[in-house]
From TrEMBL:
Protein name, as recorded: GDP-mannose pyrophosphatase
Keyword Chloroplast (UniProt): no
Gene Ontology BP terms: nucleoside phosphate metabolic process; ribose phosphate metabolic process
Ranges of residues in domain Nudix hydrolase: 41-170
Transmembrane segments: none
GO molecular function: hydrolase activity
Names of the cofactor(s): Mg(2+)
Length: 185
C-alpha cells in the first residue's frame, strides 16, 4: 500500500555502541531507486506517567538535563529494561523517581518522539489513586518533585516554562481526559 514511499535497507551496521544508545548507519534504496544513507539511534523504549493526585493536581519533576544545560519540568518517565513489561516499568519508575505508587493505572497511548533519527517509542500511562512514599532514586539521579494544578501546567506549556515534548503531550492528554473529551486506552 505504501510501496511508493518505502525505503529499503541495502546494508549497514553499528556506527557507535554506547552504554545507553546505539547509533546505526545504513545505506537504503529510495522509492526512486537512488541510494542514500540513514543514521539513526536504536532505543529500548520508555514509559511516561501522568500522575494525577486526588485533588486533581499533577505530580511533576524538576531535573537537570545535561545536553541542554538546564533544569526542566517533566512528567515522571523512564527507560524500559530488556524484557520488562511497560506497565511494570511505569509502576517502577513512578515509585523510584517520586516515591508514589498508584492503585489505578490506564494505558493512554504510544508516541514516537523523534521519528527522523530514532526508533524510540514512549508508552504513556495515566496513574490515579496515588499514595506517597519515599523515592528510591538511582545512584547519580537527582530529582525534585513538585505539584501543579492542570491549568497551571497548561499555562507553563503555553508560556514555554515546560518545553519537554513528552510532558507537553501528556498535559494535552490530561486536559482532554479531565474534560471528558478523550478516554485513556
Amino acid at each position: 500500500m505504501d510501496a511508493h514511499l518505502k525505503e529499503t535497507r541495502v546494508d549497514g551496521g553499528l556506527a557507535y555502541d554506547g552504554h545507553f544508545l546505539q547509533v546505526h548507519r545504513d545505506s537504503v534504496t529510495l522509492p526512486n531507486g537512488n541510494v542514500t544513507g540513514r543514521e539513526y539511534i536504536k532505543h529500548p523504549g520508555a514509559v511516561v506517567i501522568l500522575p494525577v493526585l486526588d485533588d486533581g493536581s499533577i505530580l511533576l519533576e524538576r531535573q537537570f538535563r545535561y545536553p541542554l544545560d538546564r533544569v526542566f519540568i517533566e512528567l515522571p518517565a523512564g527507560k524500559i529494561d530488556p524484557g520488562e513489561d511497560p506497565l511494570a516499568c511505569a509502576k517502577r519508575e513512578l515509585l523510584e523517581e517520586t516515591g508514589y505508587s498508584a492503585s489505578d493505572w490506564r494505558f493512554v497511548c504510544t508516541i514516537h518522539n523523534a521519528i527522523a533519527y530514532s526508533d524510540e517509542h514512549l508508552d504513556i500511562y495515566l496513574a490515579r489513586g496515588l499514595t506517597a512514599g519515599e523515592a528510591q532514586l538511582d545512584d547519580g539521579e537527582f530529582i525534585e518533585t513538585i505539584t501543579a494544578p492542570l491549568a497551571e501546567m497548561l499555562d507553563w506549556v503555553r508560556t514555554g516554562k515546560i518545553t519537554d515534548v513528552k510532558t507537553i503531550i501528556g498535559a494535552f492528554w490530561m486536559e482532554k481526559i479531565a474534560s471528558g473529551t478523550w478516554q485513556p486506552g
